[in-house]
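Our consortium's second objective concerns turning raw sequence data into structural hypotheses that experimental partners can test. To show how far this objective has progressed, the report includes one record in full. It was chosen at random from the queue rather than selected for favorable results. The single chain below, 449 residues long, was entered without modification.
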Amino acid sequence: MRYFYKDKNSDFYSARLLESPTVWTWISLGTAMGAFYLASHGFPKELVKIGFIASIVFLGLAIWHGYLYWRYLGSIKRVLSYWSNLELVWSLQTSLLNAKTTGAIASHSYRVLPRIWVYREKEKFFFKVQKIPGSFEEDLDHLSELVGATLGDRWEVVGKALDPSGTWFELVFGLVNQHLRFTPKVLGEIPQPAYTLKLMNGVSIDLTSLPHLAIFGLTGSRKTSTLLAFIAEVLPTSDVYFLDGKGEFSVLSSFIPADHFASSEDKILNLLSKLIKIMKKRAKFVNEEVQKRGVMGLTAKKVGLKPIFLVVDEYASVKASFKKPKDLDSLMLQALMQFRAYGIFVLYASQSPNSKVLPVQMREEFGTYILLGTANDDTQRMAFGEVATTGTVPLGSGFYLTKTAQMPTPQRFEVPDFYKYGLNGIETMKKLYEMGHKVDNINKILKKG
């Protein structure tokens, strides 16, 4: 354990170097040389004796601290790694100090903080943090949050436990699984198959079996980046409409028809009514195809209908514009329940899965759920029906769950990165939209011919 002291007008401080066996070795050598100097110049034997005894004591301290290094790190390689990461140890101690002393600095002259050992091996950081009196196993979650904040968003906790002796907290942090993150380099790498949505590398969902997708995440969790990536994927093959509570997507109206956007109550009602009419026309068309082909179970995809997406951003803001919010909930529930059979899907984004914003009956209609960033247990239960993690989640990450037997628990999600290679601009969206628009024009010309 380490004691951090403070002066009346200062923050807490500590002599960190005195934990180093190297420092104590040099102090011991310096004291011994001083004793030899005193002896050679005729100083009293008692003074020389005190010098040599002090040198032996300091050497003992060096040996003791060296033993601690070996005991808790176990190899020269780990000791060197510890020394190279001393700044990380000090930063974590500062975080712990701030967390422990909030609102109490003025009333105490010192604080006790745990001893911290850390080393890095094979793209992982291993932490061993002393369990001081008054701390409990539940403090592991809080400790992992502090360590995660100290390391930064490239690292995530992959293991945490109380050691068998019950005196040390052990944590392991690994690099965020970057290979899962979908990062297209050029326009052609953005997937364009109809009725399919790519979530990450190697993870795609078939919207005919998993209709509608909901994204939850607080401000700064990269919720909008995720939604924009999905919109970019569907623009070439689909018609996209927007219930835009905050007006963030109105910038796309420079190339998407203005009647595809709605933010006020009247426009929202008109847009939903329009989509319901389209749904009824599609239902009629599919039924006619069933009669013609004599085949049951035909879907919009099987009869060649173009997918339609309704993007609902910040549903709480959308509801706030309604005099009777329950009327909007009723229309949205109808859309979620009936649209999916005819190739019309909802991409929903909101800060919270709270039932006051998104009623439970509506939430159950989504085939896929994504929760971004760190969320408390209650929020995770509202999103997934269970707790995905009790620790922190790096920025740009989260968890997702689909309604399939193959995914009984939430899995890790990485936000698509369209920024890295400059594919996050309006020009990219415009090009993708025009690609689909040109195909539509060609089809019209062929039909006329």
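The partners drew two points from this record. The two ends are 85 Å apart (CA to CA). The chain has twelve helices and 17 strands. Both points have been shared with the crystallography group to help prioritize constructs.
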